[in-house]
């Protein structure tokens, strides 16, 4: 593999572009608007700069990595990619529409992966012209730091496709864990109900934001509290994953907490909008409840 396309230049897309460029791959990143793309490149530059400051990357390698990333708003730019990784908003309709617009530009051999946190790989694969060459490649946030890539085969995914993305994940320095195609796979099947329960705990007044996060950090040895982590993931993404679990597994234990729904309706999406369970307007995050 030499050239990777990335669709969606949010927190995940920019992280995927970062690690691919550092590994020597050419990266074409596509999003809806130029300002999103320039923010993504600025974020990659800042994060690469941190790696240089910590002595983990040479300055020349940072410049070379940045030089390998190009951006645009037209899917035609992805026509010569060996693999396109879709990392757009966690919404099945959005992803289906992206694949519809993308596939006419791709070569017959190109592979397509989705970074979805929860949506059926089998169903998304069936929305393309190449279900055998389609796979789930679920990176963790923040991509340059987190070690895991969860790989998910759809029922139609060919072994060669799976092997190719496994090899790529390893080339990026990641460790692979394989999950079957069930709602939210492994990591989020376990993590999101815990986060949702933390929001219920807040909603029912069992504890404040600070008490809940402190309790889980010091009582369960989690590096981040569940509400802080929810803000980090994005509350819209958390809610979308809970809907997939609730709809896909038909069990009331996955019912999204009404408070999570309200926050998303208010546009309080966590760090990315500077407000979620914490307020990120100042130097340090301040709990809001
Ligand atoms: P985000 O909200 O930061 O970024 C999503 C990006 O997709 C935005 O820049 C948006 O403009 C773009 N987009 C929307 N529609 C588009 C279209 N039609 N064409 C091109 N770009 C489009 O979201 P984030 O957190 O980066 O999540 C992206 C994907 O990665 C989702 O599927 C999510 O479930 C998954 N994911 C998220 C993780 C997290 O911790 N946030 C972790 C692992 C996977």
Automatic annotation (TrEMBL):
<feature type="binding site">
    <location>
        <position position="117"/>
    </location>
    <ligand>
        <name>NAD(+)</name>
    </ligand>
</feature>
<dbReference type="InterPro" id="IPR008927">
    <property type="entry name" value="6-PGluconate_DH-like_C_sf"/>
</dbReference>
<dbReference type="GO" id="GO:0006631">
    <property type="term" value="P:fatty acid metabolic process"/>
</dbReference>
<comment type="similarity">
    <text>Belongs to the 3-hydroxyacyl-CoA dehydrogenase family.</text>
</comment>
<protein>
    <submittedName>
        <fullName>3-hydroxyacyl-CoA dehydrogenase</fullName>
    </submittedName>
</protein>
<feature type="binding site">
    <location>
        <position position="141"/>
    </location>
    <ligand>
        <name>NAD(+)</name>
    </ligand>
</feature>
<feature type="binding site">
    <location>
        <position position="95"/>
    </location>
    <ligand>
        <name>NAD(+)</name>
    </ligand>
</feature>
<dbReference type="InterPro" id="IPR006108">
    <property type="entry name" value="3HC_DH_C"/>
</dbReference>
<feature type="binding site">
    <location>
        <begin position="8"/>
        <end position="13"/>
    </location>
    <ligand>
        <name>NAD(+)</name>
    </ligand>
</feature>
<keyword id="KW-0560">Oxidoreductase</keyword>
<feature type="domain" description="3-hydroxyacyl-CoA dehydrogenase NAD binding">
    <location>
        <begin position="4"/>
        <end position="181"/>
    </location>
</feature>
<dbReference type="Pfam" id="PF02737">
    <property type="entry name" value="3HCDH_N"/>
</dbReference>
<feature type="binding site">
    <location>
        <position position="31"/>
    </location>
    <ligand>
        <name>NAD(+)</name>
    </ligand>
</feature>
<keyword id="KW-0520">NAD</keyword>
<feature type="binding site">
    <location>
        <position position="90"/>
    </location>
    <ligand>
        <name>NAD(+)</name>
    </ligand>
</feature>
<dbReference type="GO" id="GO:0070403">
    <property type="term" value="F:NAD+ binding"/>
</dbReference>
<dbReference type="InterPro" id="IPR006176">
    <property type="entry name" value="3-OHacyl-CoA_DH_NAD-bd"/>
</dbReference>
<feature type="site" description="Important for catalytic activity">
    <location>
        <position position="138"/>
    </location>
</feature>
<dbReference type="InterPro" id="IPR022694">
    <property type="entry name" value="3-OHacyl-CoA_DH"/>
</dbReference>
<feature type="domain" description="3-hydroxyacyl-CoA dehydrogenase C-terminal">
    <location>
        <begin position="185"/>
        <end position="280"/>
    </location>
</feature>
<dbReference type="GO" id="GO:0016616">
    <property type="term" value="F:oxidoreductase activity, acting on the CH-OH group of donors, NAD or NADP as acceptor"/>
</dbReference>
<dbReference type="InterPro" id="IPR006180">
    <property type="entry name" value="3-OHacyl-CoA_DH_CS"/>
</dbReference>
<dbReference type="InterPro" id="IPR013328">
    <property type="entry name" value="6PGD_dom2"/>
</dbReference>
<dbReference type="InterPro" id="IPR036291">
    <property type="entry name" value="NAD(P)-bd_dom_sf"/>
</dbReference>
<dbReference type="Pfam" id="PF00725">
    <property type="entry name" value="3HCDH"/>
</dbReference>
<feature type="binding site">
    <location>
        <position position="272"/>
    </location>
    <ligand>
        <name>NAD(+)</name>
    </ligand>
</feature>
């Amino acid at each position: 593999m030499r050239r990777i396309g990335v669709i969606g230049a949010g927190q995940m897309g920019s992280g995927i572009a970062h690690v691919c460029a550092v590994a020597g791959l050419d990266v074409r990143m596509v999003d809806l608007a130029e300002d999103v793309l320039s923010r993504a490149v600025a974020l990659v530059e800042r994060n690469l700069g941190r790696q240089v400051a910590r002595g983990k990357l040479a300055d020349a390698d940072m410049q070379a990595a940045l030089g390998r990333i190009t951006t645009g708003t037209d899917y035609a730019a992805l026509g010569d990619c060996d693999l396109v990784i879709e990392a757009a908003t966690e919404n099945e309709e959005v992803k289906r529409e992206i694949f519809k617009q993308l596939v006419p530009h791709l070569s017959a051999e190109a592979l397509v992966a989705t970074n979805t946190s929860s949506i059926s790989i089998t169903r998304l694969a069936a929305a393309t012209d190449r279900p055998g060459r389609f796979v789930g490649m679920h990176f963790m946030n923040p991509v340059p730091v987190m070690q895991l890539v969860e790989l998910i085969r759809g029922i139609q995914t060919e072994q060669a496709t799976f092997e190719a993305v496994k090899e790529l994940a390893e080339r990026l320095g990641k460790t692979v864990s394989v999950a079957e195609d069930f709602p939210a796979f492994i990591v989020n099947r376990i993590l999101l109900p815990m986060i949702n329960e933390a929001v219920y705990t807040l909603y029912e007044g069992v504890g404040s934001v600070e008490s809940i996060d402190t309790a889980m950090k010091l009582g369960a040895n989690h590096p981040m509290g569940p509400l802080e982590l929810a803000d980090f993931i994005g509350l819209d993404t958390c809610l979308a994953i809970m809907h997939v679990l609730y709809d896909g597994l038909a069990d009331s234990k996955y019912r999204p907490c009404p408070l999570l729904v309200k926050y998303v309706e208010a546009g309080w999406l966590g760090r990315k909008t500077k407000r979620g369970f914490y307020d990120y307007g100042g130097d340090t995050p301040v709990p809001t409840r």
